[in-house]
Task: inverse folding
């Protein structure tokens, strides 16, 4: 076991035990929405992403999925991320039981003004999401990190180290890889971002990803993803699942190792081309 994995597991023990023993309200899912706003995304893409989340949060199908849970409520929080420790909270932990609850969150997101920020630290986003889960005033039957992004990790610690903390605590990471190339920093993107997310980012019982190849797909993709996350059941198998690959999505064969440091290597090779995307 490498040093950074040992450090990650040690941090996980400290991170996730501090709230033990305190009775908290039960919810079906404690869901963290981690939304990429790195400079590789254009202003138009940021707007489409914002509007897509706003529309999904109070969609009737999402409300129906919430109502069908054992507790009939979820808790959700959202933040925007880019570089390591570059975080902007959109809304704090909020209980959602009714359409009115969801409408309030949708309005908050719809009025937000996302601003592109430098670099891409998926690991930093995961670690921040873990801190948000530790701070949650509820006890989620399932704990899920929903992370979107249009490129690989290129700053902060290796993404596998952050993922290891989540997996050690049976926290699910689902992915929404944005496989578009319209932004100003597309030179740092990779063609097989779905494979990268599958091999390096997502994990935990029942984890999945929903690739987006064009922005007109985004509203439906995020709505479908939320419904699956809210209505899904945890896997019966107790072992940690590093990734769940759906057949037919074009991922490389699992027998071929994937370089999860590809983003860092591309940054080192091409950083002179752009101003810190």
Result:
């Amino acid at each position: 076991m490498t040093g950074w994995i040992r450090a990650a597991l040690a941090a996980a023990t400290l991170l996730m035990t501090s709230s033990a023993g305190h009775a908290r309200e039960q919810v079906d899912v404690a869901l963290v929405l981690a939304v990429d706003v790195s400079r590789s995304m254009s202003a138009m893409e940021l707007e489409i992403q914002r509007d897509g989340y706003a529309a999904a949060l109070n969609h009737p199908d999402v409300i129906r999925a919430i109502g069908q849970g054992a507790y009939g409520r979820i808790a959700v929080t959202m933040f925007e991320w880019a570089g390591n420790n570059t975080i902007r909270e959109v809304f704090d932990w909020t209980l959602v039981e009714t359409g009115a609850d969801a409408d309030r969150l949708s309005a908050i997101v719809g009025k937000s003004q996302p601003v592109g920020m430098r670099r891409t630290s998926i690991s930093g986003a995961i670690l921040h999401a873990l801190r948000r889960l530790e701070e949650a005033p509820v006890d989620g039957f399932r704990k899920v990190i929903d992370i979107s992004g249009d490129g690989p990790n290129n700053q902060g610690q290796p993404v596998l180290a952050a993922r290891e903390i989540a997996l050690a605590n049976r926290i699910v990471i689902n992915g929404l890889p944005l496989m578009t190339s319209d932004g100003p920093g597309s030179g740092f993107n990779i063609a097989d971002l779905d494979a990268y997310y599958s091999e390096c980012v997502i994990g935990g019982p029942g984890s999945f990803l929903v690739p987006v190849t064009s922005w007109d797909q985004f509203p439906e993709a995020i709505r479908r993803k939320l419904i699956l996350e809210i209505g899904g059941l945890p896997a019966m198998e107790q072992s940690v699942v590093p990734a769940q690959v759906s057949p037919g999505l074009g991922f490389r064969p699992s027998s071929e190792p994937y370089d999860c440091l590809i983003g860092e290597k591309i940054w080192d090779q091409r950083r002179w081309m752009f101003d810190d995307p």
